Amino acid sequence: MKLLSETSADEAYDRPLKSRHTIWELTLHIAAWKGEVTKALRGETFRILEPEQNWPPVESADEEAWREAKAMLRRVHGELIEALKGFDGARFDKKVKGAPFTFYVILHGLVQHDLYHAGQIAILRRK
User: Fold this and answer.
1) Half-sphere exposure of 84 (CA within 13 A, CB side)
2) What is the pTM of this model?
3) pLDDT tens, residue by residue, 9-48
4) What are the chain's domains?
C-alpha cells in the first residue's frame, strides 16, 4: 500500500512497457485474488477467475477512480485479515472447497502472489 499511496492516477495508468500490465491493473488483480481467497476461508467454493475478473478493466483513469481502486484493495485486504482471525488453524491441512489444494497452499500462494506483483509495481514506479 505504501507503493500505491505514493503513486498518482497518471502513473498508475501509464503503460511504460507496452506488453505488460499497468500499476492500476496489477492493483485490481491483487484485490480480485485476495477476495477469492477470503471467500475460500469463509467456506465458499474456490473458483478460478474468468479473464475479466482476473484482470478487471480500468473503467476511468482519473484521481477519484484511482483513490477508489486503492480503497477497494484496502477493504478487501481488511476482509482477508478478518477472515484469517476467525480461521481455525486446524484447517491448514484441509482441502479448500472446490480445489485440489489445502488452505496452507492457498495462503502461501497468496503471499507469494502479492509479493511478486508488489515487485512489479516497484519496478514500474522506477521507470
Assistant:
1) 15
2) 0.95
3) 999 999 998 999 999 999 999 999 999 999 999 999 999 9
4) 2-126 (1.20.120.450)
